[in-house]
Amino acid sequence: MDYEKYELGTVSLLSGEKLDSAFLIYKTYGKLNKSKDNVVVLPTFYTGSHQRNEGFFGIGRAIDPEKHFVVSINMFGNGFS
């Protein structure tokens, strides 16, 4: 598995309905620094995944996993979350 799973439990929706056993799949790249100020949250786009987000960052680019701690979160309904 190349990702992590965060269990949300039961989530209340705006409609009043409840989503039981909800979870988010995410992947991290790089390391969190001591001051914890190098985080970049990169949510996925519709039909995207953490794997497809990998094209948006890289060594020597604006978002660089050697400098930043990138958290790529899969949106609900994309096949992972």
Automatic annotation (TrEMBL):
Gene Ontology molecular function: acyltransferase activity, transferring groups other than amino-acyl groups
InterPro entries per record: AB_hydrolase_fold, HAT_MetX-like
TM stretches of this protein: none
Name of the protein this chain belongs to: Uncharacterized protein
Species, as recorded: marine metagenome
Species lineage: unclassified sequences, metagenomes, ecological metagenomes
